[in-house]
Write a structure and sequence with these properties.
single chain; D-amino Acid Aminotransferase, Chain A, domain 1; 4 domains; 8-stranded parallel barrel; alpha/beta; Dna Ligase, domain 1; 30 strands; 7-stranded mixed beta barrel
């Protein structure tokens, strides 16, 4: 055969012969076939494509159509592209090439014991899947193709798709000469994921560039809907460095998964999109072992290619096995400059018009343009915000001139997300109703600078962009750590210079990801309020054991923060809601008393051993045990808040030990918040039962000065810089160091007042934990103060 190569004859060196996609499949079949499952197939080579054009005598016509083409003229681009595709589709196909393709198809069918094997026919250009240019989705793919006639038809359509409008435009943008790019066609056995699930996997976090996680997205049915962003998929995060010995799944998010793509009757690329039943929408597409297996395969592929990878996977509903169907280099985050920290800060928040998943961390502003069909893309003007149901590669010519992109559907690995990262444009996906709520002509701002959720604000918001050269930052003796509440920001924040996390708050995780009072979960079967029960059912979905939902979600939230900073210390403060805050959780009113002053009431340590709450505290212990023992994140330490007396500390430690969290075992350190005068007055005694202190300057100031920090009437008295507060802190540092105990501060004071941070440095505090946006400036202040010492 002159123009056919089976995958086992190919390697990654054959990109000029069979394009990036086919070369990569050959590489995996040839070198990784014993470690991962890759469906077999063959490639019609780029030489076969060139032979077809030459034999058909259409090279001159193609060159004529491309001459003088302005890809920014949408009308001209559409017309010329259509002319070229029509020319290819109507040209005579060489008989010898036809014969080779048919023979190869028969051989592949026989290999899988089929008379007429169903295959995927995919384009594979000689300039694609490169480390600096993905060419993702530029050419066409055809699924569920069977029979000789349909195979030949699909191969010809793939060849014509080298000249889709988007592919022509992309090549011009990337500086590729059209005549130097040829097209190979891959023919690969179909995985029957229409009967199971499929999706994509990245061996790097696509938002932050954090390289130590696997990100898996997937949905029911064929994977095309996930890749094209037409469905909101399930999402999984797995921490790579501990994957060989542990089960470090640090994130599991259930997607809406309202539709799926499956086979239609017959062949010829016959697929259909159908609704997903309610039961399947409410359950995860992958179980724990499948998530871990895919992640291990992702690591094998990444290690082989020696770079972060973008991988497509599929599960076969007939044999229940997982398969890898494609792998290409990740082209955006892996090339990020890790020496520069770029921070976008919105100065004030405006009226929110829409919100969804933020892609990246940028901000963009312009007039909104709602376009529901790519056929109307000629209406779009440079600098506008594109709002649409979802994008596919046909939209790319206008995406590159947009100031922001907003879509109704899609997840963080959909087409809109991948391309917007590559283009450096702020994008928000999965708004659900963006095309209805946002109106063409409205001036708006797309903000992805506020964490996981992206917002579309009415009007042009004022914002700043700060560039930090991290190589220029001075070194400090004092360990500069961070305060974190949101697990979703952890990977991004890990790039800020730090020595770990001095305060990770459980309250944010419980409020945002759990939302339910733990006692309502424990007493689920006894609940009488039907509305409360319905809300719990909606959140816990595929959890029969409702308490396990609390354990898993808390463990995943803490685990994600622990993974982002591993092996550096991550100190997690146990829940410190006040009774009025606990009452606001779903089902909480039934279990919480009303207190006149919740700030000084039943909070912190006093709850953990109390018979009215101890069962709920046990769930927290199970979550922390899961993080440390099952996930392997032993860098996670525990901190006990609002511990008034030595006896309370001993009672809490006893409950923790009973549930697998014994201080000192498996390296577990337990800290106490120093936020009550008794913690400092009895510091020597507290040193005997805890490994260290973290100063909560907010509560400490309140209790030292006798000031209600929530009262505007005495706000002028509330001051962390007060000499009484400073003396308390100074005494604690001296006593703790005498007993070889660590002292840090996690209160707001050093973040807000650089002079306070400088003073702490003079007291030789061990660490300061700061809000992420204040870290860089405080490092500079502390370095100056330490020089003066």
């Amino acid at each position: 055969m002159n123009y056919i190569k089976f995958f086992n004859e190919l390697s990654i060196k054959d990109v000029p012969l069979v394009g990036g996609k086919n070369a990569s499949l050959g590489e995996m079949v040839r070198h990784l076939g014993k470690k991962i499952n890759v469906p077999d197939g063959f490639a019609v080579t780029a030489e076969g494509y060139r032979y077809f054009l030459e034999k058909a005598g259409i090279n001159d016509e193609i060159a004529k159509q491309l001459k003088g083409l302005n890809t920014k003229d949408m009308k001209q681009l559409a017309e010329r592209g259509r002319n070229i595709r029509t020319t290819i589709l109507e040209a005579a196909f060489p008989l010898d090439l036809k014969k080779e393709i048919v023979e190869a198809y028969k051989k592949l069918s026989k290999q899988y014991r089929s008379k007429s094997l169903d295959v995927a026919v995919r384009s594979s250009a000689t300039a694609e899947d490169l480390p600096d240019a993905s060419f993702a989705g530029q050419q066409e793919s055809y699924l569920n193709i069977s029979g000789e006639h349909e195979i030949l038809k699909a191969v010809r359509k793939c060849m014509a798709s080298l000249f889709t409008d988007r592919a022509i435009s992309y090549r011009v943008d990337k500086g590729f000469e059209h005549k130097n790019v040829a097209l190979s066609v891959g023919v690969q056995k179909m995985v029957r994921s229409d009967l199971a699930s499929a999706g994509v996997m990245f061996t790097i976090d696509t938002e932050s560039g954090f390289k130590d996680v696997i990100l898996i997205n997937g949905s029911w049915g064929l994977g095309e809907l996930v890749v094209k962003g037409k469905v909101s998929p399930d999402e999984y995060y797995v921490y790579k460095p501990l994957l060989k010995k542990f089960k470090p799944i640090v994130g599991r998010t259930l997607g809406a998964k309202k539709i799926k793509m499956q086979y239609a009757a017959g062949s010829g690329g016959s697929t259909k999109t159908v609704s997903v039943n309610e039961k399947d929408r409410r359950r995860h597409i992958l179980n724990e072992e499948e998530i871990l297996q895919l992640s291990r395969w992702g690591m094998i592929i990444e290690e082989h290619y020696q770079r972060p990878m973008d991988i497509e996977w599929a599960k076969d509903g007939r044999d229940n096995k997982m398969y890898i169907v494609q792998a290409r280099p990740e082209t955006v985050e892996s090339r990020k400059d890790l020496h520069t920290l770029k921070e976008y800060h919105i100065k004030r928040r405006g009226i929110i018009l829409s919100q969804g998943q933020a892609v990246g961390s940028k901000i963009g502003a312009g007039k909104i343009r709602v376009i529901k069909d790519a056929a109307n893309s000629h209406e779009f003007k440079a600098g506008e915000i594109l709002v649409t149901e979802m994008t596919d590669p046909d939209w790319e010519p206008i995406m590159k001139i947009a100031s922001g992109i907003v879509t109704n559907s899609g997840g963080r690995t959909c087409h809109a997300a991948i391309v917007s990262r590559e283009l450096g444009i702020a994008a928000i996906v999965g708004t659900k109703t963006g095309t209805d709520t946002l109106k063409t002509g409205t001036l708006a701002t797309v903000s992805c600078a506020e964490g996981e959720v992206g917002f579309v604000y009415k009007g042009k918001m004022s914002y700043t962009v700060i560039n930090h050269d991290l190589r220029q930052l001075p070194k400090t003796r004092t360990n500069i750590m961070m305060n974190l509440a949101s697990p979703e920001k952890a990977f991004n924040n890990s790039f800020i210079p730090n020595k770990g996390v001095g305060l990770a708050r459980e309250e944010f995780i419980i409020n945002t990801f759990i939302q339910i009072h733990p006692l309502a979960l424990l007493n689920y079967d006894k609940l009488k309020d039907k509305k409360v029960k319905r809300k719990i059912d909606d959140l816990t979905l595929d959890y029969k054991d409702k308490t396990q939902f609390f354990v898993d979600k808390l463990a995943e939230g803490v685990g994600r923060i622990g993974a982002a900073f591993y092996p550096k210390d991550v100190i997690v403060r146990l829940s410190d809601f006040k009774t009025n805050e606990y009452a606001n959780l779903i089902g909480g009113k039934e279990y919480e008393p009303k207190e006149d002053n919740p700030m000084l009431g039943w909070r912190g340590a006093s709850r953990y051993y109390d018979e009215k709450y101890v069962k709920a505290f046990e769930l927290e212990c199970k979550a922390m045990k899961k993080v440390r023992n099952e996930m392997g994140l032993t860098n996670v330490k525990i901190m006990v808040p609002f511990c008034r007396t030595i006896k309370e500390g001993e009672q809490v430690l006893s409950v923790m030990a009973k549930h697998g969290l014994k201080r000192g075992k498996n390296g577990l350190e337990v800290y106490v918040m120093a936020e009550i005068p008794s913690n400092i007055i009895l510091a020597e005694e507290f040193c005997k039962i805890f490994d260290g202190f973290s100063i909560g300057s907010n509560d400490l100031t309140q209790l030292v000065l006798g000031v209600d920090r929530d009262s505007a009437l005495v706000a002028h008295i509330y001051d962390e810089n007060n000499e009484a507060v400073r003396r308390m802190i100074s005494d604690l540092i001296r006593i703790a160091h005498k007993h070889k105990r660590k002292v840090g501060i996690c209160g707001q004071a050093p973040s807000d007042y650089p002079e306070f941070a400088a003073w702490l440095a003079t007291q030789k505090i061990d660490s300061m934990s700061l809000t992420p946006d204040s870290v860089v400036e405080v490092i500079k202040q502390v370095a100056k103060a330490e020089k003066r010492i």
